[in-house]
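Students often ask why we bother predicting the structure of a whole assembly rather than each chain alone. The short answer is interfaces. A chain on its own may look different once its partners are present, and contacts between molecules only exist in the joint model. In this exercise we take two input lines together and write out one structure for the complete complex. Read the inputs first and try to guess which parts will touch.
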Amino acid sequence: MIHPMKQENRDFMRHILFLGKNSKWYDRADSSELKGSFFRPNQKFCVEHAQRSNIVVDHLNVTIQDNPILKEVSVEIPDRKITCIIGPSGCGKSTLLKSLNRLLDMNEDVHISGSVLVDGEELYAPDVEITHIRRKMGLLSQRPCPLPMSIYDNIAYGCRIHGIRNRKKLNMIVRYYLQAVGLWDEVKDRLHTPASRMSIGQQQRLCLARGLAVEPHFILADEATSALDPISSKTIEDLFLKLKEEYAIVLVTHTLRQALRIADYVIFMYMGEIVEAGPAEQIFKNPRQELTQKYLTGVFS
Amino acid sequence: MKAGAKIGMKTSKIRLFKDKTAGSVMWIFTWLSVLLVVLMGIGLILKSLPILHDKSLWELLSGAKWKPMRGDFGFLPFIMGTLWVTAIAILWTFPVSLFTAIFLTENSKRWVKKVVFPALDILAGIPSVVYGVWGILVVLPWISDSLAPHFVEYSTGYSTLAAGIVLGVMILPLLISLFVELFSCVSVELREASLALGATRWQTTKYVLLRKTFPGIVASVTLAISRAMGETIAVLMVCGNIVQLPTSLFDGCYPLPALIANNYGEMLSLPLYESALMFAALILFAVVFVFNVISRLILRKIEQNVS
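Now the answer. The structure tokens for the assembled complex follow.
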């Protein structure tokens, strides 16, 4: 993945370290004892990050209990951009998102046809290694769901299940990702207390850090800020804006304003179909479809 | 207008009265059930006072001799019998029910649930005498013919092991349904959070589901143990009813409930005999009581640590 020596990666790290109130990073950059912990730990889950990873959804049909939820959905999700899926309630936004990491077909009643290519790999192929796919697609749910363990173990969990046991390495990973989401200074003294004791905004950032720790290529966020207070959701939004430099972020959102603020690319869905998809600027300023226009101007929501 | 307002006042008064009455009736009923426990405890203590006057508590609890004719009342064999039988039952049902419940909530298809849940309900509803008969017809011959010859010279089959097996079968449906209830309460999001990191189902179960429900699992097992300790008929039909300290699984034993059920009302002409049986009931009561209190304390401790 990211290589500590590359200039662009250093820039990225400056970005995220700023959030961790660690603006002194520049001053300390040469101090060798700290250096190690600031460089991104390389978990080596995958050989390398594909140059441009992307998702191509092709004629995806999803029925749940014989009700069609998604109809002939075809869309491409670009790398290193924030893609917002907008649309009224029950239009299939979350279903589309969940079909991207195969959490959907855990349920018996769900039937899926069509194809989803993740970095060129067919998601719904019978022989696909599902844990590998899911690791690549980080998930941030609507309500924060800290695992029933300590803050430290929440971050380390993902690495442990993928076989990293080295205590030193885990310490480094935990510290790095807590810094990346700006939690380190808030929780460094209580890393081994239950994660459920944190505030809800902190929990959501913890969940984000937990997802990042297994080195995903994508972040799938399902209304990730809707349960949070304005300040916490601002923090999460800011994090997304930093993180998009390295990840493809797919965000389902109910708030148009949020999409306006952070989207690079917008997918507008209605009744299980994609009405319009395109760069945010074009969708918001010159929507091609009347339906999109109506939705954006608040005729229905 | 005025009349309407008056009626309104009246109905609201009636409503408030009903509300208050309902509240206090519920309050009374709740405390009545608590009172029942206290009354039973007091009743048992009063009834067992005569034997407590005659012998010291330690003598009664640690004595291994049971000769009512001569006035020897040692309860140790019965206490040990109860503990052994309960322990055997829990030891084999706990893993079986845990894995069954995990399978039913996490892995099984819907039709499997449709078949298994009614079957468990039926299993739970069968009268315990029937379990006893099943034990005599199936479990005893199996133990005496197939299992015992590998370990001991001879066993009739009436044994601690048989009682443990039969008792286990009886509490199995209870444990399974408690566990299933417990696991279904865990939110889907939590499982998804773990799966989305690339965890397998089993990893999710092991590290998330079981950890999350650990306090509940402790509570369920406690409940099952309390139930198992008091189970009488089926156990006394297969345990052998021999007054001795069990030294092997193939020895007969004599749990406390069996002692009470077998003897109460028969030899009450003997001095202190009734009081001794009441004391046996008191021991059972106290063991279950203390057990519940301890497990509640443990539970509180665990809950503090987990959430």
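Check your guess against this: Strands of chain B lie at 66-67, 72-73.
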